Each structure stands twice: as structure tokens, then as C-alpha cells.
Amino acid sequence: MSLLSAFWMLLEIWAYQYFWKCFFSVKVTKRVYFISIMALWMVSFSTSLFALPQYIYTFFFILFYSVVFSVLFEGKWLHHLLVAILCFTAMSIIDTLTIYGTSILLGITAYELVWRKVLYTVINTSSRFLAVFLGWFFSRLRKSRGIHSVQGRWILLSTMFPALSFIMLFIIFEMGKSDADLNPSVLAFCGILFIVNVATIYLLNQMEQVSYETKEIALMNQQQELQTEHILALEKSYKGQRKAIHDFKNQIQTISDLLTMEEYEKAKHYVQELQETQTTRIFLANSGNTVIDAVLNHKSQLAAEKGIDMSLTLNNLSGINIGMDCMIVLLSNLLDNAIEACCRRESDRQIFCEIIANDTLWISVKNTSNPVKITNGTIPTSKASKEDHGYGLPRIQSILAQLGAEYAFDYKDGWFTFVAEIPL
């Protein structure tokens, strides 16, 4: 019987991992994932052999599964705790419905069903396979974007009903210990609990969908704003260039007239005055790629206005075939983050930007910065409204993922560095 119990435990864990895949993405390799699931199965089965009170056993496994799956999947531990409660509640309700439902259909008590070992084994095994099927079905039905995208207050509210359902089931079973069977109305109540818990999963899915769409709309608005900003910057640069060409013609004519009149000293002084007044350059970047040059020149001008020393290292970028939208949003967010970090410093404001195209496109942005805390590959935003401004780094990561790029970022000794290598 112990082998059969071990098999049932394996089916339960199989069902649980499907439910987890409904909400989270796996963050470990397939090898590590398989070994961890097998280890979880052995620990779970070994623990079940101890004669522990049911409530202690249940409480331990909810916490234990939450911790283990939080290591294997993305997301916060609180969110894993919610899924653990949902899973254990669903499994308890499925067991109740299959065992007591079958006994009612056959006109026997649940105790009598247990003593019919072959029938009991078939029913219990079927209930586990049903749980596996439901887990697989929901994992295929849902397009998981991560339950962590839902705001915390909704997570807590969504946790309450599965937790209360589990408590009610426990109370019902404790009160009915002396009875030979459950009342059919109690069985119907369990069925209603199961349906409502499924509705809770659907509600979470809808909340994730709304959260995802809200984020996508914000990102699209940001992209549109960036493109408008750079169009205006290009227009400003073009007007500046036309004015410079007009002034240049007048300056050349003046120098020519002075030379014609053999006023060599005056011509010399005039040239020196022009050199002193020409303290800025219209174009700092000239890589051969108009999109990249437009972004870099605009951000360089913006940095200069804020007292930031920005240096560029470029080679010929005319041959890269990355979409204009991606490059605008990627470089704009990287440089905006660097400028913002420098603005928080009272002195030593520096940005080094390097973009080199060879077999791959190498992008490096390094800037002086106050200490930065990096948590789980993210940087908590210090801006007042996360809904409006908190998408810079996620947008950068999203674009780099679409481009199949490798990237890394780090803070050390007063410098924040972001590097990325994009295949061409």
C-alpha cells in the first residue's frame, strides 16, 4: 500500500506543478527542475509516513510547497503561498467529491467504500488523475504572464476565499468524524466551493489580463512620446543647421572681404573670435545611422543642459538592421536613466556611452550614480508614480529579449553600468 501511496503523492505533485505553471514561469533548467520535483516527492512521501495531526500536516505542506516552488518559479513568496492554498483546497474538494460522490451513487457509506480496496484504489487514483488533468487543462488554457503583475491588495483579497474554503472543509470533516457518511447537502456545498475556487482562478486571470494590457498601453504611449520627442529634436537640429549654414556664409564673406582689403590682422582676430564663440557643436554623434545619431545628439544636448559630461564612442553603424522603434526606445530609456541618475548627484556627473557594431552590436552605458539596490534583476523605481514612470528598465529588458540579446547591469564604486550584446 505504501507504493500505491507514493504513486498517489507523485500524481498530486504532478498536478501541483501544472497549477503553478498557470501563474508563473520556470526560472531553472529542466534538469534542476526535474531533480527538484523528484526530491519534493520523496520528502513529501517520507513526511506523510509520520503520524501527525491532519492540520499540522496540511499547514507544513502548504508552507513547504510555497518555499520549494518559489525557488523553481518566478514570483514573490506571498503569491506562491496563494497558489499553494488554492491547490490544497482544490485537491481536498476533488477528493471529497470523488470519494463521497461515488459512495452516494453506489448507495454505500464512505467507510464501506474504503474497505472495498480495489474500488477504493480505482476511485482514489482517478481523483489524482482528474487533478492532473485539471492542472494541465488550466495551464494550457491560461497564457501565464505572472501573478506578480497583480497588485498586492488584490492578491491578499484573492487569498482569503481559498483559505476560508479550506478552513470550512476542515471544520466539516472534524464535525462529521463520528458520522458514517457525509450528508448530500454537504457534498453539494463542497461542489459549490470547488466552482467558486475555479472562479477565483478565472478572476486572477482577468486581473492579470487587465494589468498586462494597462502596462502595454503605458509602454505604447511612452514609445509614441519618445518618437514625437525625437521628431521635434530632429526638427530643432535641422533649423539649427540651416541657421549655422546661413551664418557660416556671412562669416566666410566677411573674412573674404577683410582679406581682399588686406586687413589681415582684423581677419585673424575675427577668426579667433569665431573660434571662441563656437563653444558647442550641433552634432556630437556621426555614426552613419540617422536614427541612432538623432537619439544620441538629442540626449547629449539634454545632458549638457543639465551639466552632465557625456562622452560617446561609436564606429560605423550604418549597416545595422535593427528596427527604428526598438533602437529609439532602447537607447532613449538607457540614456534617460543615466541622465536621471546623474541629476541626483551634486557633482561628478559623467556618462560614457559606447556603441560598436562588428559581428554583434555592443551597447554600453556607464554613468556616475548614487548607490543602487538591485533586487531579483530589477531596480525599485524612486519616482513618485510607478504607473507612469516605472517601465524604463522592464521596457529595456523586453526589447532586448525580443532581439535575442544578452545583457547585464551592475553598480560598483559609484558607477552604474549597463551592457548589452545584440546579434546582427
Structural overview:
It is a single chain. The chain contains 13 helices and five strands. The chain has a five-stranded mixed β-sheet, covered by helices on one side. α4 (77-106) packs across α6 (117-141). The protein has 424 residues and is an alpha+beta fold. It has helices spanning 2-23, 30-48, 54-72, 77-106, 110-115, 117-141, 152-175, 184-260, 264-277, 290-305, 324-343, 386-389, 392-402, and strands spanning 309-314, 350-357, 360-368, 406-412, 415-423.
Task: Please tag this protein with its features.
alpha+beta, 68% helix, 424 residues, 5 strands
Walk across the major sheet and give the strand order: 1-2-3-5-4
Mean pLDDT: 77
Low-confidence stretches: 383-391
Q: What is the radius of gyration?
A: 33 Å
Content of β-strand? 5-15%
Number of helices: 13
Helix content: 55-70%
Instruction: Give the number of DSSP strands.
Output: 5
- What is the H/E order? HHHHHHHHHHEHEEHHEE
Q: What is the terminal separation in angstroms? A: 59 Å
Helix/strand/pairing category: alpha+beta
Q: Could you describe the largest sheet, including whether it forms a barrel?
A: 5 strands, mixed
Structure, briefly:
This protein has helices at about 1-25, 30-50, 55-70, 75-105, 110-115, 115-140, 150-175, 185-260, 265-275, 290-305, 325-345, 385-390, 390-400, and strands spanning about 310-315, 350-355, 360-370, 405-410, 415-424.
List the helices and strands and how they pair.
Elements: H1 2-23, H2 30-48, H3 54-72, H4 77-106, H5 110-115, H6 117-141, H7 152-175, H8 184-260, H9 264-277, H10 290-305, E1 309-314, H11 324-343, E2 350-357, E3 360-368, H12 386-389, H13 392-402, E4 406-412, E5 415-423
Parallel strand pairs: 1-2
Antiparallel strand pairs: 2-3, 3-5, 4-5
